[in-house]
């Protein structure tokens, strides 16, 4: 039987012991062996702290976000084999989708957050700058940097993929190397996904390591700066937290433990209401999804005392319709537990629950294409606790399977009190259409819950469900739930980051943070800042504008244009007792006038105004005052661009408006989208002619078999096709992929060197030469390129077919030619 290999200090290594046999949860057949015997854990941790930390922490947050996306795309292409393995853990297709593609989705989400909101630097400035001196020559702020250590991540058996990826999403994005330690059960699935992550070659050396099997003494080697993340039982978690290596060192410890989550049916949600039906469906789903093996599953069903019978009957009928059996069968809606060992543990807990509460539903015991002897199957079990304030076992014992307990309540006060008797839960839900009931119950139970999910007819269609943690929201809970926090958007990175206060002069803080601080030196040049591409803009680039004297006519005209007739701008007789001496210019007029002073009228790389932040008005501006503007590049934010958008970044500009007395009257931050420099040549006729002058009959290609004349005639043919001479009669790209191919014209990725022309048969010549020689071909090419320019000025709406990209308009043809010309000019070493 194959042993799962471990991946430590950059090598795949088998354990040297007998290991733990791993079985198919459906058939009982052995699948693999996990073994960590003989592994050098001390060396593994050291490898992460040194090689892994150096490689990851030197990357920028933006680049690490791009890395997550690439890994997720790589894994997504290989998902079928993961599903095949997931079925062996007892998971249905839906269960597997949540685990596998839910895990990939977490990587995608964090990649998107990074590319929208994190800097293109290895550190992250946190919060605003604090002015800590009277004249502003001494400032303070905070930066976040990757914690200098390794993260050991101990995962539970119920989600072999998502459990690994949701932790890695934040640790890798934060720049901290990780050692993944999955539960042995189901680790053959974790192992398969991890192998492909390494095979992809996307992750830097030392970024991740894998230990498949028992953890051995790995935690004995934990030291200052390291972190441990644990998902599992509270008992085990508390033991780990108290280990001398963890408790005695500055080791960050995060625990997500077992949790007696509840769902409350509102007093208003009687049979026949949408909320009653939603409640039954939600509880059934949470009892049967992953066969109840979810840390967020509903264990306590809190129902108005007069509706206990209705809920019991409706839920029993719903559970009766849930077919249990082989996950590969289309009929199956609930699979098995992950193994016999877990089955025995759930049975033990069920027997404890029977001691105090009544088992009122034990499910249908027929299986689809499976049997109880070989597989770890269990029917759903529903208990009734008729006195939930006296019988505490329902609030103390969690059976980690398809097991839940009904309990009655009288009013909102009792519902909240019962919810809190779980002594700390990951999630509690309320199903009700009564806003007052929801509000009163939710804030009272919030102190003992990490998340409160409210469901009713208004949100049901788009709701993600009680049991689904989301990357953008915190996953964790107080008390029994472990007191930890995972994910929660960018907040989930803070666990892995060191926060450091930075103090110094404006110039020093600008140098450290790469964000311009007011009072720092400005850089002036003859080139207008709005004429610079994103790569050319430097933090501190500045412009001092001419002055503009505000007139009474300006104030009156702005009132009329904006319809803002606030008395301070229009009625000089109403100013008694105000802060104004006379009618004052509108704040937004000052901002608009400032923009009029600092913008560049000439077309340039600035694409659009992207937003406005932190606008403040400090002093009134009256008719007769003269304003001048200082525009300074404050911060650059790299930006991922999709679809048919020009590759660009966001530049934040500090706008300081001063009056004739050099008093600051307005400060704002404006955001602009600024185009990135294209790596492709412009369709400038003089420039292209100059490039072609360097092409001779003896010029050899760097790749491919084209001759110089074939290349020029090939480009000319492309230009003629873009004029409809001849009109291409066919596009070779399938219709469903066409939009993606057309979108690719807008990005800055170069054409592949080995792309075969789809319209040519194998070994077919590219084109028969039609010109006498290379020089004649060059002249003809340039003539037709000039015609292209004129044609689309005269016919701006024209569209013509391309063999690969389909029907293209003027803009798309220009982008196509820029890429195509660049590709072939580089082929012959001309640029």
TrEMBL record:
<dbReference type="InterPro" id="IPR011966">
    <property type="entry name" value="PaaN-DH"/>
</dbReference>
<dbReference type="InterPro" id="IPR029069">
    <property type="entry name" value="HotDog_dom_sf"/>
</dbReference>
<feature type="domain" description="Aldehyde dehydrogenase">
    <location>
        <begin position="12"/>
        <end position="498"/>
    </location>
</feature>
<dbReference type="InterPro" id="IPR016163">
    <property type="entry name" value="Ald_DH_C"/>
</dbReference>
<feature type="domain" description="MaoC-like">
    <location>
        <begin position="539"/>
        <end position="639"/>
    </location>
</feature>
<feature type="region of interest" description="Disordered">
    <location>
        <begin position="460"/>
        <end position="484"/>
    </location>
</feature>
<dbReference type="Pfam" id="PF00171">
    <property type="entry name" value="Aldedh"/>
</dbReference>
<dbReference type="Pfam" id="PF01575">
    <property type="entry name" value="MaoC_dehydratas"/>
</dbReference>
<dbReference type="InterPro" id="IPR016161">
    <property type="entry name" value="Ald_DH/histidinol_DH"/>
</dbReference>
<keyword id="KW-0560">Oxidoreductase</keyword>
<protein>
    <submittedName>
        <fullName>Phenylacetic acid degradation bifunctional protein PaaZ</fullName>
    </submittedName>
</protein>
<dbReference type="InterPro" id="IPR015590">
    <property type="entry name" value="Aldehyde_DH_dom"/>
</dbReference>
<dbReference type="InterPro" id="IPR002539">
    <property type="entry name" value="MaoC-like_dom"/>
</dbReference>
<dbReference type="InterPro" id="IPR016162">
    <property type="entry name" value="Ald_DH_N"/>
</dbReference>
């Amino acid at each position: 039987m194959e042993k799962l290999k471990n991946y430590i200090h950059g090598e795949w290594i088998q354990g040297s012991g007998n290991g733990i046999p791993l079985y198919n949860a459906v058939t009982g057949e052995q699948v693999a062996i996990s073994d960590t015997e003989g592994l050098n854990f001390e060396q593994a941790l050291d490898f992460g702290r040194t090689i892994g930390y150096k490689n990851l922490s030197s990357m920028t947050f933006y680049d690490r976000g791009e890395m997550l996306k690439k890994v997720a795309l790589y894994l997504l292409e290989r998902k079928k084999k993961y599903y095949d393995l997931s079925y062996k853990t007892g998971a249905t297709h839906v269960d597997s989708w949540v685990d596998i593609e839910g895990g990939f989705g977490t990587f995608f989400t964090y990649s998107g957050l990074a590319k929208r909101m994190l800097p293109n630097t290895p550190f992250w400035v946190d919060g605003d700058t604090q002015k800590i001196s009277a004249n502003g020559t001494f400032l303070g702020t905070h930066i976040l940097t990757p914690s200098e250590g390794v993260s050991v991540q101990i995962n539970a058996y119920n989600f072999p993929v998502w459990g690994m990826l949701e932790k890695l999403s934040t640790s890798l994005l934060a720049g901290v190397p990780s050692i993944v330690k999955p539960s042995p059960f189901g680790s053959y699935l974790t192992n398969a996904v991890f192998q492909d992550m390494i095979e992809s070659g996307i992750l830097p050396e030392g970024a991740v390591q894998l230990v498949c099997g028992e953890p051995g003494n790995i935690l004995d080697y934990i030291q200052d700066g390291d972190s441990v993340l644990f998902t599992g039982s509270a008992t085990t978690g508390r033991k780990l937290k108290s280990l001398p290596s963890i408790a005695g060192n500055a080791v960050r410890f995060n625990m997500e433990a077992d949790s007696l989550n509840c769902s409350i049916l509102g007093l208003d949600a009687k049979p026949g209401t949408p909320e009653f039906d939603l409640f039954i469906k939600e509880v059934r789903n949470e009892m049967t999804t992953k066969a109840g093996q979810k840390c967020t599953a509903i264990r306590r069903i809190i129902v108005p005392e007069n509706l206990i019978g209705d809920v019991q009957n409706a839920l029993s009928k719903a559970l009766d319709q849930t077919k249990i059996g082989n996950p590969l069968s289309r009929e199956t809606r609930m699979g098995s537990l992950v193994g016999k060992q877990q089955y025995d543990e759930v049975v033990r807990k069920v027997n404890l629950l029977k001691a105090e509460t009544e088992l009122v539903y034990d499910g249908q015991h027929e299986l689809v294409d499976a049997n109880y002897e070989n597989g770890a199957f269990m029917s759903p079990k529903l208990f009734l606790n008729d006195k939930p304030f006296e019988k505490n076992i329902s609030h103390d014992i969690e059976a980690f399977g398809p097991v839940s307990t009904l309990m009655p309540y009288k009013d909102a006060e009792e519902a909240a009190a019962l919810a809190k008797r779980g002594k700390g839960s990951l999630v509690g839900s309320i199903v009700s259409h009564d806003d007052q009931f929801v509000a009163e119950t939710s804030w009272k139970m919030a102190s003992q819950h990490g998340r409160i999910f409210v469901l009713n007819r208004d949100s049901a269609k788009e709701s993600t469900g009680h049991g689904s943690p989301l990357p953008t929201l915190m996953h964790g809970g107080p008390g029994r739930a472990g007191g930890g926090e995972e994910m929660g958007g960018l907040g989930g990175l803070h666990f892995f980051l060191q926060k450091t206060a930075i103090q110094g002069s404006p110039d020093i803080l600008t140098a450290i943070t790469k964000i311009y601080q007011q009072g720092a030196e400005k850089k002036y040049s003859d080139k207008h800042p709005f004429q610079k591409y994103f790569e050319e803009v430097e933090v501190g680039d500045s412009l001092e504008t001419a002055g503009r004297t505000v007139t009474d006519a300006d104030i009156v005209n702005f009132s009329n244009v904006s319809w803002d007739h606030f008395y301070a701008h229009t009625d000089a007789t109403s100013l008694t007792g105000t802060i104004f001496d006379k009618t004052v210019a509108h704040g937004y007029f000052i901002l608009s006038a400032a923009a009029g002073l600092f913008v560049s009228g000439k077309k340039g790389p600035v694409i659009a105004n992207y937003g406005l932040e932190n606008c403040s008005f400090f002093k009134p501006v009256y008719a007769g005052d003269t304003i001048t503007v200082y525009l300074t590049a404050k911060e650059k934010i790299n930006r991922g661009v999709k679809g048919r958008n020009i590759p660009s970044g966001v530049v934040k500009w500090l706008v300081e408006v001063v009056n004739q007395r050099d008093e600051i009257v307005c400060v704002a931050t404006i955001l602009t989208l600024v185009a990135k420099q294209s790596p492709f040549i412009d369709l400038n006729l003089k420039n292209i002619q100059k490039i072609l002058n360097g092409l001779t009959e003896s010029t050899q290609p760097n790749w491919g078999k084209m001759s110089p004349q074939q290349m020029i005639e090939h480009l000319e043919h492309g230009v003629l096709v873009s004029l409809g001479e001849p009109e291409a009669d066919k596009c070779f790209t399938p219709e469903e992929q066409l939009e993606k191919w057309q979108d690719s014209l807008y990005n800055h990725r170069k054409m592949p060197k080995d792309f075969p022309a789809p319209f040519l048969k194998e070994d077919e010549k590219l084109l028969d030469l039609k010109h006498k020689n290379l020089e004649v071909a060059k002249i003809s090419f340039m003539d037709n390129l000039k015609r292209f320019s004129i044609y689309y000025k005269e016919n701006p709406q024209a569209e013509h077919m391309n063999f690969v990209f389909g029907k293209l308009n003027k803009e798309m043809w220009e982008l196509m030619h820029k890429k195509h010309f660049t590709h072939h000019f580089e082929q012959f070493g001309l640029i």
